[in-house]
Amino acid sequence: MRKYFCILICLLIALSGAWAYAGNSSENITVTRPKITVDSILGELDKGKYVKAELLVKFKPGTLQQKSQAIHQTIGAKIIKKSAILENVERIKLPTGVSLKDAIIQYMSDPAVEYASPVFIRKAAGISGMMPDDQFFRDQWALRNIGKYAYGTKGADIDAIYAWRVSTGNYGIVIAVIDTGIDYTHPDLASNLWRNYPECYGVAGVDDDGNGFIDDCTGWNFVKCEEWDVSGCLYPTTEDNNPMDYNGHGTHVAGIIGAIGHNGIGVTGVMWRAKIMPVRVLNQYGEGDDSDIAEGIKYAVDNGAKVINASLGGYGTSPVLEEAMSYAYSHGVLFVAAAGNESNNNDINPVYPASYPYPNIISVAATDQDDRRVPFSNFGYSSVHVGAPGVYVISTVPTWWADYYGYGYLEHFAGTSMAAPHVSGLAGLLYSYYINFDYSKIKNMILTYVDVLPTLDGWVSSRGRINAFSAMSALWEPFDLKLKIKGSYVELKWTDVAHAEKNTIIERKTEGGAYVTLATLGANVTSYTDTYGITEGVKYTYRVRLKNQIGETPGHPDNERSISTGLIAPSGLKATALSKSKVKLTWFDGSGSEKGFKIYRHDGTGSYMHIKTVGRNVTSYTDKKLAAGTKYWYQVKAYNDSGDSEPSNEAEVTTSAK
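RESULT FIELD:
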């Protein structure tokens, strides 16, 4: 026993020695602070966000208050605050008419000033969410779960508030809801509902658009039986152009997809902006037959739906329903279907239409506020694809419900019927942003970028619950592209906000031209320098697109940036000390239209001063009558009648001491 004890003590000593070494290794690191010059400060102005009319001014140790006050008065600045912690640092407000750049140059030219810096603004390192102001958004745990509603788990949601940073939807995306109809007068839905304008403004009683349906302004009602029993239809009816909801189910589904977002009332849909097509195929009791459903599917396809939401289903297949599903598939329409609510294994006992094998179908199971599969939800590792919130879901219901005691314009429902429209809404968001993607790419994005959950692993094929932000931001194009001319090059910089790109594609065009690819780079790239044939006096437009195994982004116009080239700046400036009083400068002339070159110098005590102008095509100059053993900095600019180029690179040199 003593032997093992001694071994243990030796090991502890050895480990403590290793820890001590690891802790002390940082003492050998030397950090060299960069030299602060007026140019180093001005060079930061285009790199970040800052307060436009304020500066942080630090005076050198020993500077008297009367001196600092006199410097402020010369510029006309007023002291906002003297820091009690940062030694000799004062925050000042500039007078109207004095630019930040001029103020920095003037402050930095005074020997008593150590630096004059912009007041840069920083922010938390992360994407902030977009919070809608809808009255009952706090109860929509599926979109944002803070752990307080129904005793849920914080974060067990679809990350909608972050997905909305990428897109809140698009009025051009048509999502058909084949269901019990929709209350198209609902104040939280009306402006997000599809309208067939040729019929809305056409001649009454005439099929103005020639689609085979007369006056179908707001959709169509295919229901031909308002009540069934085992013997058949008890109350036959006639299909018409009124898809009003006399049950409530369809209106609830529609609200989950696209209740108007950020309008101060009710709730918000997964899409704030959408075009939801009412297609009534279920009667007032929520039942419908295969022929009505099949006709509704075909109507939705023929009238421009990109997504069909089918929060309905049953056991047993039929040729008429299967043919309608085939029709939707052949026309590239994404079909989102509820998996069912009988705790059934759909792999063994299929539910239709969710279980048809067409690749355009997404079958959806239900999860709860703790990210668990709801016990009533159907499942199937092969035939059910993904989970989505399906209990305690608050959404819109028909306005006529308010006539009954205890009801209003909103209610809570549960079921895979509520889970499916969360997926349909996400599909609509994806179509809004990835405008060049077809149904297969949209489906792939939804199923690839899920939150994998132990409670769904083995129960659905993706093993997870949808995550709207993960799907939307997988190939999120950079939206803060910045351009800067550097000599004869253009420098591009941006923030990488995507998380799943494989390639970064850099493209450029000139006015009236088409984009051409300059380079295809890897992932996580944040800068690129364009060296390909930059010409003076030309406007160049750039964009950055992303690509992975699913597809590549379209290149959004909002993310394009343009820059016009003036004179191309000299480059490759070198300074060589010839003696204690002479320095030779050489540079590369990248311009083809300069009138000459302006040479600038400073010795560390102030800003750059113009010392000489030389003629066109000159690429060298000897500076004379300099002080011995002194460090100098140089820059060169090209110029013509239209103005000066950007400065060249900075060259540093020290004259000989003897």
